[in-house]
Write a structure and sequence with these properties.
The protein is mainly beta. It contains no helices and 12 strands. The strands form 3 sheets. A 7-stranded mixed beta barrel has the order 1-7-5-11-10-9-12. InterPro entries: DUF6917.
Length: 139
């Protein structure tokens, strides 16, 4: 059964580049597979090589990309593709709410956790959360 319908992509812009990484961060994956975001909100992007999507999964190995201002309201779903200035970064693993309501940590799974400078991020760079393309079986 298909649970979700079509949606628009969510755009953003980098407002601050982050340069650090941790192997003992202890983030906790929220039980929610999606979060609504409003225009003007600022959220933190964090890469990880963790892949477990179970609620409460501990996320330790992380690299911080930066903070992103949301340009258009929408829904960010687990599995959405994340693109920075046209370069594929990874897929949304989920959300950590340790700083909420100030901001969410949007966790992005990638083979190697990378920091903002390692991806060449800079302020005002475009960020896109795009629905993952899923092949629908022919009938």
């Amino acid at each position: 059964m298909v649970e979700d319908g079509e949606k628009r992509a969510v755009g953003g812009r980098v407002v601050k580049v982050l340069v650090h990484r941790r192997d003992d961060r202890g983030m906790s994956l929220e039980p929610f597979a999606s979060r609504c975001v409003r225009r003007g909100e600022v959220h933190e992007l964090v890469t990880t090589d963790h892949e477990d999507t179970a609620a409460g999964a501990r996320i330790d190995r992380v690299a911080f990309l930066g903070f992103v201002e949301i340009v258009n309201a929408g829904v960010i779903d687990r599995g959405d593709e994340v693109w920075c200035d046209g370069e594929f970064v990874g897929s949304v693993l989920g959300f950590d709410a340790c700083h909420h309501p100030n901001h969410y940590n949007i966790l992005i799974t990638s083979p190697t956790p990378r920091t903002g400078p390692e991806l060449g991020l800079r302020p005002e760079m475009d960020v896109l959360f795009s629905p993952a393309v899923v092949a629908v079986p022919a009938r």
